[in-house]
Amino acid sequence: MTITSLSRRFDYLSWRKAFEIANTQGSTLIWPFGACEQHGPHLPLATDTIFAEKIAAQVLEKLPSSMPIWILPSQGLGFSPEHASFPGTISLSAELLLQLVMEVGQQIAALGFRRLLFFNAHGGQIGLLETAARQIRLKCPSMAVLPCFLWRGVSSLKDVIPSEEIERGLHAGLAETSLMLSLNPDLVGSINNVDGDHSSTESLATPPEGWSLEGPSPCAWLTKDLSESGVIGDSRDANSDLGRAIEKALEDHWVRLLTNLLKSEWPPTTS
Predict the structure, then answer these.
(1) Which of 2, 164, 171, 184 is paired with 19 by a 20 to 30 Å CA distance?
(2) How many CA within 13 A on the CB side of residue 68?
(3) Helix or strand or coil: residue 211?
(4) pTM > 0.70: yes or no
(5) Separation between Cα atoms, residue 28 and residue 147, nearest integer Å
(6) 68 burial class (0-12, 13-18, 19+ CB within 10 angstroms)?
(7) What structural domains and CATH numbers belong to the chain?
């Protein structure tokens, strides 16, 4: 993180300053969520956490310093049972993560914050965080809770990522490998390693007709159902130029959405 983004770190504040900013009009906290899970033979276990942290920090850099938004420490252990058969994966239970998020969320609301945004980069816990968000909002109606997924709704990605990879490149494929080559290339192993096939296109199991891995009729898949390498998609054409294009698309999308949020009166006043 740069100096400017460090100044937005909630946990770097004194308690007096934390109380002050929490009670600022429109006060907003962003909470990055990732995971510690296998990402094929070439990407680090912390891939999702790195994405959430770095994109969030870069987005905050582009927002005016006058905007009342700060960032919490990342939650780097997540809900990853689909990857449990691969070494390195550490997964919290759904119950434990739900309890953790709800307890933290309620304390943030009690401080006086008006908005809490989950900035999640791990697809396997989208539903869980949406459930937590709804329950926190029910218990703390004065605070908006926004369970966001890093990759969701970024329409410009279709202009830089092939449609097949958007549909089937769910994990450690072209997009994630390219983004890591842009953000932290030292953490990327050999994409063309002869000892490990980084493409699962040949071994990818096909769901029954009318069903999909994700989307409107999803299957609750396990990674071992789909890939021996842990890669779901094809990383072989990954490159840093594509990674920078993906990085820009993500940044532009979230700068726009956060700007709109911070300029709004959301959540509505409750009686």
Answers:
(1) 2
(2) 21
(3) coil
(4) yes
(5) 13
(6) middle
(7) 3-260 (3.40.50.10310)
Q: Are 46 and 245 in contact (CB under 8 A)?
A: no
Token reading at 12: 């770097």
Nearest-angstrom CA–CA distance, 66 and 135:
31
Rg (CA), the chain: 19
How far, rounded to the nearest angstrom, does the alpha carbon of residue 180 sit from its chain's CA centroid? Answer: 14
Question: Percent of the chain scored above 70 by pLDDT?
Answer: 93
> 31 has which bridge partners?
118
Cβ neighbours of residue 197 under 8 Å, at least 6 residues apart?
A: 228, 229, 231
Contact status, residue 49 vs residue 41, Cβ threshold 8 Å: no
Strands 28-33 and 69-71: parallel
CA–CA separation, 112 and 233 (whole Å): 43
Name, in order, each residue with C-beta under 8 angstroms of 86's C-beta and a sequence gap of 6 or more: 37, 38, 223, 224, 230
Locate tokens 């953790």: which residue? Answer: 100
Q: For 142-174, write each residue's pLDDT tens digit.
A: 999 999 999 999 999 999 999 989 988 999 999
Beta strands in the chain (DSSP E): 28-33, 69-71, 115-120, 144-149
